[in-house]
Amino acid sequence: MPATVVPLPPSPPPSRAPPLLLADVPLLEPVPSVGTLIGLPPPLMRAASLKSVSTLHPNDYKGGPTLNGQYLGLVTEGAAVTLTPGEHQITVNYATSAKAATAPTLRLSWAPQQHDVDAAAAAAARARTAVVFVDDADTNTAAGDVGTLGPGQDNLIEKVAAANPNTVVVLNTGAGVLMPWLGHVKGVLEMWFPRQEGGTATADLLLGKANPSGKLPITFPADNASTPFAGHPERTIGVNGQIVSSEALQVGYRWYLANHVKPLFPFGFGLSYSSFEYSDLRISGPHGRPGRVDVSFRVRNTGSVSGTEIPQLYLSLPAPAGEPSQRLVGFDRVTLKAGQSAPVKLVIDPASTERPMSFWNTTTHNWQIPTGSSASPSEDPSPTTASPEASRSADTRKIQGKRAGPPPGRSPLK
Question: In Å, how far are 87, 160, 268 from 123, measured between CA atoms?
Answer without folding.
Answer: 31, 9, 36
